[in-house]
Amino acid sequence: MNKIGIIGCGRQAPKHINGYLGNGIKDIYLSDVDEDKAKKLAMEYGLKHLTYDEIINSKEITTYSICTPPETHDLIIDDLIEKEKNFLCEKPISQNIDKLHKYEKSIAKKKLVAMGGYIYKFSPAHIHAKKLIENTDANTIQKAYFRIASPGSNAPWQFSKKLGGGVINEMVVHIIDLVQWYFGDIKEIKNVSKKIYLEHRIKTLNDTDELAEDYVHIKLITKSNIEVEIEADLISSEFIQYVQFNSKEFECFLSIQPNLPLQLKYQNKSLDLCKFFEFQNLYIYQIEYFLQCVNKNKTQEISTMRESIAIARTINEIIDL
Ligand SMILES: NC(=O)c1ccc[n+]([C@@H]2O[C@H](COP(=O)([O-])OP(=O)(O)OC[C@H]3O[C@@H](n4cnc5c(N)ncnc54)[C@H](O)[C@@H]3O)[C@@H](O)[C@H]2O)c1
What is the pTM of this model? Predict the structure, then answer.
């Protein structure tokens, strides 16, 4: 039975804990630079907490979730790869393309499983829509619009340029992952328009830091010639996520949110559909897949380091434009 280490005990950690518990794994150890946070979360779930050195060096723990802010991922990943550990790292794994290439080589050499936390691909609505689209004429879709929005958390790093926050790193990464998954590689970023609306957040940052954008509108084109529009923000009062795919004869609307049904209209083949998907804990599915790969019951094909490299390339280009 796998023994699990979770590094970082903030907002994401309980989702990972529940993901492992939902897969019948109870041997979970927690760690955080802020020991009180690890202690508190461990008490809440009846788990043990360890220091960073203890969790990384444990001989029994072979499989980890990294749930720390993006800027801390690289150092933790270096340690985990050196110790030959498998890991599921929250998105974005890294913005450093050289590092990502290095990780890709080392994990292949050491036969480790390293997965990015791109969870939307585990949504039953998205899986259903992808199959429907694959069963139609692939040239059917001409345009796609992806919307994602969130109020963000109270953690100052979320809005900090220096600490890898901002709407592009926090939200757009999920969408770039979905675009690649649905339509393949991206050919060109056509236009990027960025804004900072909630300027008062500067008060949460230290003097040498800057606010990262909290709104972005992006136009890009895929190698399969689909025009994609992405609108993302960290200013909305509620989480929102939906997608629209269009052509002359095809319309599809869907979301990971269970209160929004998958709707499909396809004139020629009368595939019309309006389908609600019950709420599912996507972390249980994501971690089930991760564990299957770790336990060699599956070869990893989802959220690989290769995909993370392609995402990081696009994200860095969007940030630089
Ligand atoms: N998949 C998703 O939908 C989703 C949603 C939100 C956040 N995230 C990602 O999850 C990650 C964590 O986000 P969060 O909202 O939980 O952040 P958070 O700020 O709530 O929690 C991060 C925790 O990590 C701890 N920490 C910081 N540096 C550390 C280190 N070097 N070693 C150990 N602990 C350390 C902090 O003390 C804090 O408790 C980020 O990469 C973020 O982008 C993913």
Answer: 0.96
